[in-house]
């Protein structure tokens, strides 16, 4: 496996993600920001942050599969959330838990959550992009 996820001693514990991703592979897969759209491009789960997060992770998984990768190969995730405030964290975690259950694995690579004022369309509440590394 080309990715090793670590949480070095001296950094705060975090169940949501690992602090460090060590990539030793030679093929980099960059997945563009995925939003809550189905295969036809129709926005789904309007107004439901947890459901949109789940759909975004599912779409990332589909994109990764197209490149021969899985969440086990992900070195980093960036998540953009409209009007982010810390009180949204329980809903954010619910969406990740739902995606993890559906995917059969909990994606825990280094993760950055960025609050933004808007995304490409007003119905999008979240967008997730990924970087994966393969041998």
Write the layout of secondary structure elements.
Blueprint: E1 3-6, E2 20-23, E3 27-34, H1 49-66, E4 74-82, H2 89-103, E5 111-116, E6 126-134
Parallel strand pairs: 4-5
Antiparallel strand pairs: 1-2, 3-6, 4-6
Brief overview:
With 135 residues, the chain is an alpha+beta fold. It contains two helices and six strands; from the N terminus they run E-E-E-H-E-H-E-E. It has one domain (3-134): 60s Ribosomal Protein L30, Chain: A (2-Layer Sandwich), CATH 3.30.1330.
How does this model look, in words?
The protein is of the alpha+beta class and about 140 residues long. The chain has a single domain, classed as RutC-like (60s Ribosomal Protein L30, Chain: A, 2-Layer Sandwich), CATH 3.30.1330. It is about 25% helix and about 30% strand. It is built from two helices and six strands, in the order E-E-E-H-E-H-E-E. It has helices spanning about 50-65, 90-105; strands at about 5, 20-25, 25-35, 75-80, 110-115, 125-135. The chain has a four-stranded mixed beta sheet. Strand 4 (about 75-80), helix 2 (about 90-105) and strand 5 form a beta-alpha-beta unit. Helix 1 (about 50-65) runs parallel beside helix 2. The N and C termini lie close together (about 5 Å). The relative contact order is 0.29.
């Amino acid at each position: 496996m080309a990715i090793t996820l670590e949480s070095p001693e001296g950094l705060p514990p975090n169940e949501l993600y690992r602090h460090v991703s060590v990539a030793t592979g030679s093929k980099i897969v960059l997945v563009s920001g995925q939003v809550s759209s189905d295969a036809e491009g129709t926005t789904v789960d309007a107004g439901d942050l947890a459901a949109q997060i789940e759909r975004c992770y599912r779409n990332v998984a589909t994109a990764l599969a197209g490149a021969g990768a899985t969440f086990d190969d992900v070195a980093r995730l960036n998540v953009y959330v409209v009007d982010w405030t810390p009180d949204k964290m329980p809903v954010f975690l619910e969406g990740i838990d739902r995606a993890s259950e559906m995917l059969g694995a909990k994606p825990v690579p280094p993760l950055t959550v960025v609050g933004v004022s808007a995304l490409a369309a007003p119905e999008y509440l979240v967008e997730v992009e990924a970087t994966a590394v393969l041998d």
